[in-house]
Amino acid sequence: MSEERSAERLFNAFFGKPGAAHQPPPPPGDIPPLEEMLKALVGIGERTFGRYAFSRDPLRGKFPAEEKDRLTVLANRCGREYAAKLAERYHTDRPEELAKALGMQVDYPMQPTGVTYVTFARFTPPDKISIYRHSLDKANDLLAQEPVGKVMGNLAVQQVLLAHELFHVVEERNKKEIFTRTEKVKLWAPWPLRNRSTIRCLGEIAGMAFAGELTGLAYSPFVLDVFLIYGYSQAAAFKLYQELMELDESLHAPPHDTGEEAPD
After folding, report:
1. Rounded to two decimals, what is the model's pTM?
2. pLDDT single digits (tens) 185-195
3. For residue 95, which of 129, 118, 125 has the smallest C-alpha distance?
4. In the chain, which ranges are E strands?
5. Closest Cα to residue 207, out of 68, 103, 72?
6. In what order do the strands lie in the sheet with 128-131?
7. Are β-strands 128-131 and 105-107 bridged in parallel, bridged antiparallel, or unpaired?
8. Lower CB density within 10 Å: C or N end of the chain?
9. Contact status, residue 247 vs residue 21, Cβ threshold 8 Å
10. Per residue in 46-74, pLDDT tens?
11. Is 262 exposed, middle or buried (0-12, 13-18, 19+ CB in 10 A)?
12. Taking the C-alpha atoms of 239, 243, 244 and 245 in order, what is their torsion angle to the nearest 10 degrees?
């Protein structure tokens, strides 16, 4: 499978709206330069990225809009607080030093094996993190382009990916008390049984806040979703960019007095 088709498959499976797989890709001339998309994305706030993360969660239909926003605030707070705690405990905010302090084995294979989609990094419990050089090389090639590098500023992709995976290490080791694991939603079960599930996207939201706190990014690491996939498929990155911008616009549009709730 080509990189372009693999990236499209990733987009359709995880990024795209329902039916995206059946929509034709935009003509190449309709895709704006990467730096223009990034300039818009770095201005997006946490609320929008929280809604974006919830839109990927299998349990997204269980939450009204206001609850998604409330949980997003708490997940971001969780990520930043744990980043601060870790940095204070080990007297460093450098992800590689923190990984060593936590006893993690970090390797940099070229590509993952046994998967048919693009992935950038992975935490394998209990103590292994893999950062894939294939994605890093593509990202660094893009950053070497002056207009892109200027927008992304002090971005060190390797450090952000490692920091994000470190949050999942922290999450796993503190699963009895960390918010992203203790916050649960009630699901149906026959009486008298109880069925409560964790909310997967909270870990992703908190992981991005954690990574942003440690690396000092001036924008959300969620921007890397578009940036990294662009190296594999411009069309897939553009679709994701459009979705994020439409979501951000809808959340900031003035309410219409129609008597109906605004789309979630």
Report:
1. 0.86
2. 875 445 555 65
3. 129
4. 105-107, 121-124, 128-131, 184-187, 195-198
5. 72
6. 105-107, 128-131, 121-124
7. parallel
8. N
9. no
10. 999 999 999 999 999 999 999 999 999 99
11. exposed
12. 100
